[in-house]
Structure formats: C-alpha cells, structure tokens
C-alpha cells in the first residue's frame, strides 16, 4: 500500500481542491442553503489531517485530542450543511449530534491512556458509521426524488465509506502505535476518506445545486405560464365586464340624443358616444396585444403566390383610401411568378395594420406599398416590404418609442387611438423573425418597413392558377352599402376573387361615382340612409352617367314576391340576398357578365339561431371581433326594439331605418326568425299598414332567439 506520508500529502491536496470547488459552487449558488457552510468542511478536515501528522512531534494527548475534535467537528459541519440544503432536521439529526459530542468527549478521555489505541479507533469508526448511515438514509428518503443525480453520487461514496468503516470495526485486530501507520486498514481508510471521498462530495454538491437551479427555473417557467393564463382570464373577464356597461352607456346616450328636443343635449351625447367608442376600441386593442403573449404557436406557413396575394390584400384596403380621396398604389419589384412559403395570416395582419395607420394619418396625397427584392438566394429571398405615406411625419425623438405599448406620436394624439397598433405589429414581426424600421420627415411623410426572409415555394403552381375556376375574377365593382358589417364581409369575399371595389355608403355617393367611373357591375343595397335602391335607379335613368349598360345587382334582405317583381321591373339583373353567402355572391357576379337569368332563391333556415352563421364571420373577422359583434348586438337589441316602439308613431322614417339595420344584422348573425320578422315589420311600415302588436311579439321572439343563442354559446364553452 501507499506509505502514510504520501497519503497525507494527497489528502491535503484533495482537501484544497475540494475547498476550491465548494467555493466556486457557493459563488454560483449564494442563496442556496448549506453551500456556504460546506466550504468549511474540507478546511476543518485538512486541519484534522495536519493534526494527525503532528503525532509524535508534540504531546500525544494534545495531538490526538485536537485531531479527533476537528475530525468530529468536520463531520458535524458536513451533516448540518447537507441538512440545510435538503431542508431536513429530524430526530435522527439531534441523535447524531449528541452521539458525536459524546464520542468526542470519550476520545479525549481515552487519549490519556496509550493502551487504549484500539478503543479510540473503534470510537472514531463508530462515529464515521453514524455519519455515513445518517446521510445515506437522508439521501435515500429525501434526496433521490428531487435530486436524483447528486443523490447517486452521495449514496455511492457513503455506501463505500459505511462498508469500509464497518469492515474495519469488525475485522481489524489489535494494533499498536508502532505498526499503526503501516497497517493496511489505516492506509485504505485514509485513501478513501481523505483522497477519494472529498472529490465525490464536491462533485455531489455541485450536482445538487445544479438540479436545484433547474427546479427553480422550471418553477419560474410554470409560474410564468400560470401568470399568463391568469392574465388572459383576467383580461377576458374584465373586457366582458367593461363592454357590458359600455354598451349600456352607448345605447343610453343614443336614446337621449334621439329623444331630446333640446339642441344643447346633442354635443354632450355625441361626446359620450365618442368616448365610449374610443374605450371600446382600447379594450379590443389591449386584448389583441395581450393575446400575443397567450398564443405561442408555431408559424403556419403556406405556399402563396405573392403578387396575387398582395393584389387581393390591396383590393381589400383600397376602398378605405378612396373614402379619404387618397391615391393607393402597389409597387411590386419581385419576379412576376414569385411564390413563397409564409405565415400569410400574420403577414397580412402586419400589412393591414401599417396601411390602416398610413390611411388614418394621411389626409391628402398617396399611400403606397412597395415590395422589393433585397437578396436572391438559392432557397429563399430576402424581401423588404415598405408602407409609404405623405402624412404629417413623426418627430425623430418619438420614433424610438412608437413600438412601445400605449405610446403615441403627436399626430397620433390628435387623431386618437390606443397606441397599441404598432406595438402589436412589432410583436408579430418578432414572431416572423423580422423587425419594424421607421423613417420619417416632418410634413413630407413616413416609411414603415421590414425585411423578411421567405422560403421559395413551388413556382409551377403559379401556372396552374385559375385554370379550374368556373367563376369570373377581376371585375370593377361598385358596392353601395351603409352597414359596416356587411361592407367588410362583402369586400373580403370579393377581394378573394380579385375584384376591384369602390365603396359608397349612400345613394347620392353612388350616383356621383357612377357619373365619374365605369364599373363592370353595381352591387346596390335597396335601403340606404338617404335614398332607396329604387330611387337611385330611377334617378340614374334621368341623368348622364358612364354605366348605362352596367348590370345592377340588388343587395337586400327584402325578398317578398312583390319586392322581387319591383326589382326586376327596374332592370335589376340579379338579387344577392342577405345574409351574405360567398357562393351566392360569387355566382351572381359571374352571372352578371353573361345572359344568365336571375337566381332569386335564398337559403335561409327557419330557426331561432343558425349555428353556422358565425363561420361566415370568422372568414372576415378575428374571433375577438366576432365575439365583440355578437356582444354588441345581443346587448343592444332589446333597447333598440323598445326605441322602435317609441318612434313608430312620432318618427316613422327613423323607425324604418332602425328596423332595417337591425334586421340586416340579425340575419347576418344567424337570428333568422327574428330578422325575418323585422323585415316583415319594415315592409308593413313602408306600406303604411297597421302594426298592431307586432313589435311586442318581436320582443318575445327576440327573447326566444337570445335563449337559443345563449344555449349554443354555453355548449361551445363546455
């Protein structure tokens, strides 16, 4: 075996290494219990080994007493440090401390008698056995589950130590000072306890700390996830709680404004309505922004023919620009047949947000989308998409903060808004691996751009596009519709087929546009705020305009036999019934360019609530928007019907307009029986027929329809 001097030096070196490793472990885990105390364990062990080495150079009683006392102190430090780390102090711990103190006092007493060497070694071995047994039991019962790797290291070395000292206790015979240092039992125990064990202990503590740190990170991640869920639940709850009184405020303010004969009330009511609508917009934007944290889904990439996709998007946005008399352009500097894999929903929302902002802040001039190829690689293209406007511009110091939530530029504060649009856009671009860049010059305009890398798609698909389509695309369409909900749905459907749309919200605007522009087809609502569709057609017959031979499609929910005969007698080509169905609209637009006869049939289920209606809206609106549309209608329907009862004798014209809008929305949202009943009431009002109790019956029908809707909503939630 190795001689004692070599083992002493090796043991001292290992203690120094263990001290260094324990110190580094503590530096990384300063807040972990037990790690600081663990640094002192090898130091005290080192002092004990050195005291044993002094045996023979100083008083034997003193060296033995000091060495064994330090050895037992190191043992106590070791056990306390592990107990602090595992947060376990049990009856066994107190028993171990008591046994060690008794052993230490016994060892000091026996040191006075040189003939008691075997007994001193026996007491030392028993103390080591007690330490190893206690720690072994502690790791088996409390450490394995939470710290499997560190526990394995400790269990291994403690098992070896326990076996070694148990064997020495049972098998070592009589021993004398003369042959102590040359004994194999002495060499083996010094090698294991002084050289090998310190490395295991240092490694074990490092592993324990690493596993605890990993557990803390997992707990933090789980807590963050739960916090996100709680925040999402809070936001959805609070938004509902805000929207409910908000709709009450809106309805009440509108009722007061309509009923009051004092002109001084009108500006106050308008201020209340505008403020409530701004708050409603803020709630919607806050939910959109918060939902980006809730949703951490992977990108849903599809193969998209990029130019066609952009053209369809521009068709959707151009009516908004034309409403403000702005020139709207798409500058496309990519290969004509470029086809890319991209998450078109997220990219679409980014472009819509940027263009919507540009149109909002630009009062005259141009809004332009510029798409250019920056770098053409073998498998992907680096593309820059810029939205350029001729608006008021942005101050340089404001640009750096615009993508922060709730921050607005000076122009933004004047125009109003939530300050969340660019924050949402910036977050979406982060998910797409891009970044929003803003450049602006005061009084000249702004450019919002981002660079995005898109994988090249299957270009062969481009050549096959439209070959199988049996309907017309790319028509110039005039849409005459005053209801925002129907406008957006119709524009979305027609943009899918690449139709170019101009929008008019009343009859007089429609007449002006038909005098200035030629259209392939006119989609005409038959009940507008200023004129009926019939009056629009009669006026057009008496003036010069560019659409003498342009087919007109009636866009209406009024489909009684007498009304249909009237429409056809005025020269209407076909009728697109409400609620709007994409296939019917598509077919009517295609038939308008042929000699195909009108197809009047409208599929409308006779039901209180049509569960398929929401699917039509989902194609044009987000889920939150659809929820908001339903909430607003459901919360205001009863009040509006009561308002109609109040207006029916005093202001029949206003009553007809209110019922018409309610009927159109009800049918579009799937309240078929209720919407049909409102259309019947509207027809009776137009014909000056008595209503009797029809409005009261409509109220009862609405309650039944609402119950059917709520039953469906509860079923969906469950």
Keywords:
single chain; 718 residues; alpha/beta; seven-stranded mixed β-sheet; 25 helices; 12 strands
**Derived structural class:** alpha/beta
Biggest sheet layout: 7 strands, mixed
In quaternary terms, these chains amount to: single chain
What is the CA–CA distance across the termini? 76 Å
Helix count from the secondary structure assignment: 25
**Arithmetic mean of pLDDT:** 79
C-alpha-based Rg, rounded: 42 Å
Q: Based on CA inertia axes, which overall geometry fits? A: elongated
Q: How many strand elements?
A: 12
Unreliable residue stretches: 460-468
Strand content: 5-15%
Helix fraction bin = 55-70%
Set down the secondary structure blueprint.
Blueprint: H1 4-28, H2 35-53, H3 60-86, H4 91-110, H5 117-143, H6 148-171, H7 177-180, H8 184-259, H9 265-294, E1 302-305, H10 306-323, E2 327-333, E3 339-342, H11 344-361, E4 366-376, E5 380-389, H12 396-399, H13 410-415, H14 421-431, E6 436-441, E7 445-456, H15 460-464, E8 476-480, H16 484-496, E9 500-504, H17 507-516, E10 521-525, H18 533-541, E11 552-556, H19 561-569, E12 574-577, H20 582-592, H21 613-618, H22 623-650, H23 652-668, H24 672-686, H25 694-717
Parallel strand pairs: 2-4, 8-9, 8-10, 10-11, 11-12
Antiparallel strand pairs: 1-3, 3-7, 4-5, 5-7, 6-7
Helix pairs in contact: 1-2, 1-8, 2-3, 2-8, 3-4, 3-5, 4-5, 5-6, 6-8, 8-9, 8-22, 9-14, 10-11, 10-16, 11-14, 17-18, 22-23, 22-25, 23-24, 24-25
